[in-house]
Design a protein that fits this description.
The complex is a heterodimer of chains A (151) and B (799). With 151 residues, chain A is α+β, with helices and mostly antiparallel strands. Chain A is 35% helix and 14% strand. Chain A is globular, with a radius of gyration of 15 Å. In chain B, a hairpin with a 5-residue loop joins strand 3 and strand 4. Chain B folds into three domains: 225 residues, 2-Layer Sandwich (Aldehyde Oxidoreductase, domain 4), CATH 3.30.365.10; 160 residues, Aldehyde oxidase/xanthine dehydrogenase, molybdopterin binding domain (Aldehyde Oxidoreductase, domain 4), CATH 3.30.365; 360 residues, 2-Layer Sandwich (Aldehyde Oxidoreductase, domain 4). In chain B, helix 11 packs across helix 12. Chain B is 27% helix and 22% strand. The chains are: A alpha+beta (151), B alpha+beta (799).
Chain lengths: 151, 799
């Protein structure tokens, strides 16, 4: 039996210990904001926070998450008003929107460590995320706008 | 069906007022309990509209010939009228608009209601959108060909103007004043003289029984009266999208739902020889292994077939499929090798093809030119690689099929499901979720059929989940293409002759077996309709047989047309010793408006991107304007350091004119970055300029993937690539620092927006690379071709 905390709620899991966190979140908890895009940590669509740091949920087996504290896009902010979420709306970043939860979770991790990221910081932190619609310039702008607002 | 670049002509639950309450329900469709059971006279299409919109209130439908009020008694199943647009005002004033087009990032769920609400004089915060199911009655719902606004703008406007007139009439009647004395204003009608006001909601009861306003009386807003059209509107789904609550295909969860993974043929047309499912069935959570019969190729939209592992959850299905042993026969296309096929295509374009456009005597011109330039270009297959791998949910019970899918074409999905499962279309319901990217992939409902087939076999709701590997290896691919261009220049550098031949397997090959190749009709996707002023031209297509499923991919043939033509024009400018931009302007030539179907086009198809040729003549002033705009705004002509360069291209496709200047920085290791791009678009009237800008930004970045990174290749009939690791696409680091988009707004007939940005970007990127490095890339992707460029000798620019 694995126990962990997801978005502030204690959960226990006694299924296949090799199941990736991604499928646990989506299939068992119906937290479908965490997306499947590639399954091999190439696209970032499944990014969540584990112990406050961005992590690819497709790569984390449940057996490694005993006692872990997991935050998904649904739990990033109680009312969905994290500065990044606000900036994303202000700049109208999304097109199809599918990759955006992962992008926002990654950016939230970045801003936690670097409240005033440079272009280079943003590129490095976000390069592991694919947006096939091509919203990269707006993602950059939204991260900067959120950083500005926070400071 | 026109299989060219679209099939035109073929056929959240909300709280009361809160802006942030949309999409709160996970399954608005399932919870909907508003079927007008008593209303047997209403045919199924309108019944489904009423089901989604709910009973009561005032419902108007707009279709060919005008607007009607949807009162059940007046509508019978025998009435052939097909409305596309439905608008409802409830008694509390809440406006609900049924969106009949699929949302895949282009913003239609915002732009469509925005136009209607603007014309209605509705208050935007009181407007809601519901997604329509797949129904014949909505007309073509096929969200492709950049058609959503250009095909429906007049109807959206008429819908809104009708509601506005009806509200004004109702208020005037209640007040006993002339309709000319009242005016709708933000969800109310005002009596101008006295300032009295009545809300839209309070007028619904009167409006329900009044005479409908005559069509001649309708007044579409003048530009000055518009509140949002042509200006800006924030996207409607931003809150659910940014909080993870938006519902895409795989996010639909039904009680008791199983999850299936399918092993599909590794080679187009190969068949299962044997299945050993003993290990798969031992995987905990795996419940059943099911054979899906292989559909005879070419197969159109039908599933490929194969072997499915049905499990209680996704991970069990993945592990079960890994444990499944399937052997396949070689299949009829096991000899498909991309390298050899490239040589075949090049041999094909070495010989004359079928002409789509012919004027003057090109052979004589080429023979007598002061100079001739020849070049060949190649572009590989591409896969859409939309972020959401296809997935669909279906529940088949009691002969009824209900499906949820991220589909671009719910109507095609419905009919294909009916055909595949041998049931009446009336017994098939297709609900449209949000699409996590589509780019043409999701216009084919093969995956929806898989889900329904499996649901029927296992007697439970099933989600079919494709992995990224499935998506890369079993897609409908963008055509591989070879081009050969040859031109003559006179002594002054003016182009006198233009011979363009191309060969590529055609999309039609998935609908008809053994097609020898494309038809000249396919050239009107930006090759036979180029805006050049050249007296002797021949534009031809040459044979190419398909060995894999070919399908629409954003911009379709215009991608390789744009790359080849855009590059070749730049090569001609070099040969003529002229500035590339000035050369483009000269090539477009004198001011003229031309019905291109009457101007050298050989047997032109009846329509032009689904529109009348006469509605969209070539206007060279517009083509030159977009070029001049990007010249002016990009700093064209100013010097850049070695390793940096600008490229320019202009292309007309999907009835819009787009020019781009792309500035690249090529690092010594060959990495291409894009510091800046300047885009000018003339798409006639642009309803939602910010979404149009975002489409141009995205088109440029998709063109970066197409030109710099992406390639699907085949060895022994199998796709070589598997995931984003080896099927690479543009990422943040290389993405443009600045994309400066200029929408040349006007009141002209609207053109497409989603697609026409890609083709000129492909050419402009290649031209910028040449300007930066002196290396002319004629085979895509660029990949590692530029590594060490700075230490190599510069090429001369022609071959």
């Amino acid at each position: 039996m694995i126990t962990l905390t997801v978005n502030g709620t204690r959960r226990s899991f006694d299924g296949d210990p090799t199941m990736p966190l991604l499928w646990y979140l989506r299939d068992e908890l119906a937290l479908t904001g965490t997306k499947y895009g590639c399954g091999i940590a190439q696209c970032g669509a499944c990014t969540v926070h584990v112990a406050g740091r961005p992590a690819r949920a497709c790569q984390l087996k449940m057996e490694t998450l005993q006692g872990a504290v997991v935050t998904t896009i649904e739990g990033l902010h109680p009312t969905g008003q994290h500065p990044l979420q606000e900036a994303w709306r202000e700049i109208d970043v999304p097109q199809c929107g599918f990759c955006q939860p992962g992008q926002i979770m990654q950016a939230a991790g970045l801003l936690k460590n670097k409240p005033k990221p440079t272009d280079q910081d943003i590129d490095t932190a976000m390069n592991g995320h694919i947006c096939r619609c091509g919203t990269y310039p707006r993602i950059r702008a939204a991260i900067k706008a959120a950083a500005e607002k926070q400071s | 069906m026109s299989a060219l670049f679209g099939k035109h002509g073929k056929h959240g639950k909300h709280g009361k007022h809160g802006k942030h309450e949309r999409h709160e329900s996970r399954l608005p469709w399932v919870s909907s309990n508003t079927t007008p059971e008593s209303d047997e006279l209403v045919d199924s299409g309108r019944r489904s509209a009423l089901k989604i919109l709910g009973l009561g209130g005032l419902v108007l439908a707009v279709g060919p010939g005008g607007v009607r009020r949807l009162d059940a008694a007046a509508l019978t199943a025998a009435d052939p009228w097909n409305p596309h647009v439905y608008v409802k005002i409830a008694d509390d004033g809440i406006v609900t608009i049924l969106c009949h087009r699929s949302e895949m990032g282009q913003g239609i769920r915002t732009t469509m209601p925005m136009i209607i609400a603007d014309e209605m004089e509705a208050d935007w915060s009181n407007c809601r959108v519901e997604q329509a199911d797949g129904e014949e009655k909505y007309g073509s719902q096929n969200t492709d060909g950049s058609t959503s606004i250009r095909a429906f703008l007049p109807q959206y406007r008429e819908a809104g103007a009708t509601v506005r007139a009806l509200m004004e009439d109702a208020a005037a009647k209640e007040w006993g004043v002339a309709a000319t004395e009242v005016k709708a204003e933000q969800h109310e009608v005002v009596h101008t003289a006295t300032g009295r006001r009545k809300s839209f909601g309070s007028l619904v009861a009167s409006a329900r029984t009044m005479a409908m306003p005559a069509r001649e009386r309708l007044r579409i807003k003048s530009p000055a009266e518009r509140r949002w059209q042509g200006k800006a509107m924030r996207s409607i789904d931003l809150v659910p999208v940014t909080t993870g609550k938006a519902v895409y295909g795989a996010d639909v969860i039904l009680p008791g739902m199983k999850v299936a993974m399918v092993v599909r043929p590794p080679v187009w047309g190969s068949k299962v020889v044997s299945v050993d499912d003993s290990a798969a069935l031992k995987v905990p959570g795996v419940e059943k292994v099911v054979r899906i019969p292989e559909s005879p190729i070419p197969g159109a939209f039908l599933p490929l077939g194969g072997v499915a592992v049905v499990a209680k959850n996704t991970w069990a299905a993945i592990r079960g499929r890994e444990a499944l042993k399937v052997t396949w026969d070689a299949g009829p296309h096991a000899t498909y090798e991309s390298k050899a096929y490239k040589a075949e295509l090049e041999a094909s374009v070495a010989k004359p093809g079928a002409p789509g456009y012919r004027t003057g005597d090109v052979a004589a011109a080429l023979a007598s030119g002061a100079r001739t330039v020849k070049a060949s270009y190649y572009m590989p297959h591409l896969s859409h690689a939309q972020m959401e791998p296809v997935a669909a949910i279906a529940n088949v019970s009691n002969g009824k099929v209900e499906a949820w899918a991220p589909t671009q074409s719910p109507f095609d999905a419905r009919n294909t499901l009916a055909q595949y499962l041998k049931v009446e279309p009336a017994n098939v319901t297709v609900h449209v979720t949000l699409l996590g990217g589509a780019f043409g992939r999701k216009s084919k409902p093969d995956f929806v059929c898989e889900a329904a087939f499996l649901s029927r076999e296992v007697g439970a709701p099933v989600r079919v989940q494709w992995t990224r590997e499935d998506d890369v290896r079993n897609s409908y691919y963008h055509s591989v293409a070879a081009h050969r261009l040859e031109a003559s220049l006179d002594a002054s550098g003016k182009v006198t002759g233009w011979l363009h031949r191309s060969a590529y397997p055609t999309i039609s090959s998935v609908f008809a077996p053994n097609l020898p190749g494309p038809t000249p009709d396919e050239l009107i996707n930006g090759a036979s309709d180029v805006p050049w002023d050249i007296p002797n031209m021949s534009v031809e297509v040459c044979p190419a047989v398909a060995h894999v499923r070919i399908g629409w991919f954003r911009s379709v043939n215009a991608i390789h047309h744009g790359f080849a033509i855009g590059s070749f024009v730049d090569e001609l400018a070099q040969a003529a010793g002229k500035d590339s931009a000035e050369f483009l302007l000269q090539l477009i030539g004198r001011d003229r408006v031309v019905d291109q179907s009457k101007n050298g086009m050989v047997e032109p198809p009846k329509d032009y991107y689904g529109a009348a040729w006469t509605d969209y003549p070539l206007d060279t002033v517009r083509a030159k304007n977009v070029v001049r705009t990007v010249m002016e705004k990009s700093g064209w002509g100013t010097k850049l350091p070695r390793g940096r360069g600008r490229g320019i291209a202009v292309h007309r496709s999907f009835l819009s004119y787009v020019a781009m200047v792309v500035e690249v920085e090529v690092l010594p290791d060959g990495t291409v970055l894009v510091p800046k791009a300047t885009v000018a678009v003339d798409a006639g009237f642009v309803a939602n300029p910010d979404r149009a800008k975002s489409q141009m930004e995205g088109a440029l970045i998709m063109a970066m993937s197409n030109t710099l990174h992406s390639e699907i290749s085949f060895a022994q009939g199998r796709v070589v690539q598997s995931n984003y690791r080896d099927y690479q696409v543009a990422r943040m680091r290389a993405a443009p620092r600045t994309v400066d988009v200029h929408i040349l707004q006007n009141e002209g007939m609207p053109g497409g927006i989603g697609e026409p940005g890609v083709p000129p970007a492909c050419g402009a990127i290649a031209n910028a690379i040449f300007a930066a490095t002196g290396v002319r890339v004629r085979e895509l992707p660029v990949g590692r071709q530029l590594a060490g460029w700075s230490t190599r000798a510069t090429e001369d620019g022609s071959s």
